[in-house]
Design a protein that fits this description.
288 residues, alpha+beta, four-stranded antiparallel β-sheet, 41% helix, Helix-turn-helix domain-containing protein, DNA-binding, HTH_AraC
């Protein structure tokens, strides 16, 4: 039996400031993490066991996935099946802008359902992805995006302000803010303890339960988001890693690929290449 080749295609649309990507032939597990942007994706092939916000799902071909910013999630293959997956990433400020254009209202949407089984909305996601990789006219891309988001907003979203979301308590929020402001520093558990009246074990358990990830995973995710911004600006990966608080280059590269699915150099090319060729020319292997 021939081995399936793993492929990762990622594109950045400069007209709409939206990222689109396709993963195929993927066996890799994705560890517990969150994003600072919205993710709308669907399973094209294979099946996965997904954990999201303390709930578990078995997702399969045709299922729609909706992640809000900060929705922690991770997944693993079922019975060794390979994964084919397409998705788009939308920054909160871009989402709010499009939402106002669609609804005429200023509000931040919140996806009320993370998994929608066998959803027809996946067709809109695929159409939008294809429009991006074809470098379709801006009008065509905007039209498909509006149809997609209009469906999602009508069926699976509500104003963020109107959702009763369990938030971390003030001490845990303070720790999150501290790590967001000091991400480039060598933060220790003792540093965090000094800001609370917790013991080490209680802090770790309480933080993980309330935030969905451990303090170290939270810090690394914040660093990852910062380093992505630096890479998008054209800063060399080795410098971006240092500026974001990663002290070991090899560890940084492995960590980045584990979460993003690309090496830092591969990710940077999305934003520095002036012309992104149509699929399948955007097929990357690991940088050596």
């Amino acid at each position: 039996m021939a081995q399936v080749q793993e492929q990762r295609h990622v594109y950045y649309d400069r007209d709409l400031e939206i990222e689109a990507y396709n993963l195929s032939g993927i066996i890799q597990k994705f560890p517990n993490h969150f994003h600072e942007y919205y993710v709308i994706g669907f399973v094209e092939g294979g099946s996965r066991h997904l954990w999201c916000k303390n709930r578990e799902y078995d997702v399969a071909t045709g299922d729609l996935l909706l992640f809000n910013p900060r929705d922690n999630h991770f997944c693993a293959p079922i019975n060794g099946e390979i994964l084919d997956y397409r998705a788009i990433n939308i920054k909160p400020e871009i989402m709010s802008k499009v939402v106002k254009e669609i609804t005429g209202k200023d509000y931040t949407p919140y996806f009320t359902q993370n998994v929608v089984c066998q959803s027809d909305i996946t067709l809109f996601v695929r159409d939008f992805y294809n429009a991006i990789i074809r470098r379709a006219p801006k009008l065509e891309k905007e039209e498909v995006l509006f149809f997609l988001l209009e469906q999602v907003l009508q069926e699976y979203a509500a104003p963020f302000e109107g959702i009763d979301i369990s938030e971390p308590n003030q001490q845990i929020k303070m720790l999150c803010t501290y790590m967001e402001n000091h991400f480039a520093e060598n933060i220790t558990l003792d540093d965090l303890l000094e800001m609370t009246n917790f013991g080490k074990s209680y802090l770790l358990r309480s933080f993980t339960k309330q935030v969905g990830v451990s303090p170290y995973r939270y810090l690394q995710t914040v660093r990852l988001d910062r380093v992505k911004n630096l890479l998008e600006q054209g800063i060399a990966p080795i410098d971006a890693a240092y500026m974001a608080g990663f002290s070991d280059q090899s560890h940084f590269t492995n960590f980045f690929k584990e979460f993003i699915g690309l090496t830092p150099k591969q990710y940077q090319r999305i934003f520095t290449d002036t012309e992104q060729p149509p699929e399948p020319a955007k097929e990357w292997q690991d940088d050596k």
